[in-house]
Amino acid sequence: MNLAHPANTKVLACLARGGSGSPVFSAWDSVAAPFYLCGCHPEIVERLWEQLGAALASDCRCLVHLIPALVQPRSGVILGIGLGTQ
């Protein structure tokens, strides 16, 4: 992930507000049960990773501040994040 990319600035600032001390970027499978334990409804994670992510040319699944996300591997730009229950 490109921390300095202007497209990521506001998203990273918003996600960092939680102050949890979580890593900024980690692999999607680096936590146990990422569909259930990452602060987002499992159906949202499924939609983001399994449906939207499947349409992309490469695997973009990851965690940003332990939030499910899609990040374009080459540019490092955050394409989408999963938040909440709706």
Task: Describe the protein.
The chain has helices at residues 9-16, 42-52; strands at residues 25-27, 61-64, 67-71, 78-81. Helices cover 22% and strands 19% of the residues. The chain is an alpha+beta fold. The chain has a domain at 23-81. A four-stranded antiparallel beta sheet has the order 1-2-3-4. The chain contains two helices and four strands, in the order αβαβββ. β2 (61-64) and β3 form a beta hairpin. The model has no long low-confidence stretch (mean pLDDT 90). It is globular, with a radius of gyration of 12 Å.
Q: In summary, what is this structure?
A:
The protein is of the alpha+beta class and 86 residues long. The chain has two helices and four strands. Strands 1-2-3-4 form a four-stranded antiparallel β-sheet.
Please estimate the helix content: 10-25%
Series of secondary-structure elements, N-terminal to C-terminal: HEHEEE
Beta-strand percent range: 15-25%
Structural class: alpha+beta
| Side-by-side strand order of the widest sheet | 1-2-3-4
Total number of beta strands? 4
Largest sheet: 4 strands, antiparallel
Q: How many H/I helical runs?
A: 2
Q: State mean pLDDT (0 to 100 scale).
A: 90
- Spatial shape: globular
Report the uncertain regions. none
N-to-C terminal Cα separation, in Å? 26 Å
Rounded to the nearest angstrom, the radius of gyration is: 12 Å
